[in-house]
Design a protein that fits this description.
There is one protein chain. The protein has about 140 residues and is mainly alpha-helical. Helices cover about 40% and strands about 10% of the residues. Strands 1-4 form a two-stranded antiparallel ribbon. A two-stranded antiparallel ribbon has the order 2-3. The protein is elongated, with a radius of gyration of 24 Å.
Length: about 140
């Protein structure tokens, strides 16, 4: 689960659901939901209805034996697979990394575009800084 999802801790957490009556004996479902959720304040993240549906849908599909693994999100691992990882049960080891869309923009063009954008940001920052100084001077707190 992503960080800032629970009031009691800002760090990512793992939820373990353990049962004796497994529908998939010898298999473990791993879900990596670290990148899910939406920040609703500076300190709190919430899952959307779609996020909840995705996680619960994967859980239900696993229990029914119909899980379609999604790279970067879900995977079912056998006990042998877990043993090969020295019994380390961090979800990322099993679900892998999600595929990222390839950026077709040539590096030189991208850097020229980005440096132009940051230059405009710096200019705006300088303009705002001067405006703040003027406002402070106007109320008797000049720098």
């Amino acid at each position: 689960m992503p960080g800032q999802l629970f009031y009691s801790t800002p760090i990512p957490v793992c939820l373990w659901i353990i049962t004796k009556k497994k529908d998939q004996p010898g298999k473990t479902l791993f879900i990596d939901a670290r990148n899910m959720g939406t920040m609703v304040s500076r300190k709190l993240r919430e899952f959307t209805d779609e996020d909840i549906a995705k996680v619960s849908g994967a859980f239900d599909a696993f229990r029914e034996g119909k899980l379609e693994e999604e790279k970067g999100f879900s995977a079912a691992a056998s006990i042998e697979d877990i043993a090969k990882q020295d019994y380390i049960i961090t979800p990322g080891r099993y679900v892998g990394i999600a595929d990222v869309e390839e950026d077709d923009e040539p590096f030189e063009e991208k850097m020229a575009r980005l440096t132009g954008e940051i230059s405009k940001c710096f200019e705006e920052s300088n303009r705002l800084q001067e405006q703040i100084k003027k406002n402070l001077e106007a109320i008797g707190y000049g720098l």
